[in-house]
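As noted in the main text, all predictions were made from sequence alone. Below is one such record, for SRPBCC family protein.
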Amino acid sequence: MDMVDEIARAHRELIDGERKVAVLRRRYDAEIEDVWDACTDAGRLKRWFLPVTGDLRLGGRYQFEGNAGGEILECEPPRRFKVSWVMGDAPGLSEVEVELTPDGDGTRFELRHTAEVPPEMWDGFGPGAVGVGWDLAVLGLGLHLAGGEQVDEATFHLTEEGRRVITAAAAAWGRASEAAGVPPERAAAHVAAVTAFYAPEPEA
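Prediction:
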């Protein structure tokens, strides 16, 4: 699997209003039930995303290890779910919704992250701040569904391939920003900041 090609397979959209919405869509060569199970079963989630604890059902609460937690707000197997997405004491609304749709012999996957973003965070990084993280997660899901080996998250950004993937994802979110009306120079500054955050230049 060419990981940079996998990044190119996804479609990204920014809805730039009072609440920011980052949308990521792609197709998987897997049946909808398999994709649903990979996204909702704790045993499989830890194989491509993160270990999760909690009550994984409607109304239950969950916590990803070292990451976000929240409440399962909506759940309609095997089509869609929505969760609140809370990192530490971060204020404001933040929700993630995943929708799955059969597409021939595969499945169309759509993730929407809606959030009230502090102005200083948005001005500095734009949608790539969360978008690149979701790109890496969606890449991990694709590797998992294809039966491939998972990447080492602790060192992926240090590898040549990892840096190419992160650079490609950041640039793609820059293009989504411009399509949403963000001035090109501002979108370019966001791309540079996000790339430096996820894949800083190695020390000499």
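The two ends are 30 Å apart (CA to CA). DSSP finds seven helices and eight strands in the chain. These features were considered when defining construct boundaries for the mutagenesis experiments described in Section 2.9.
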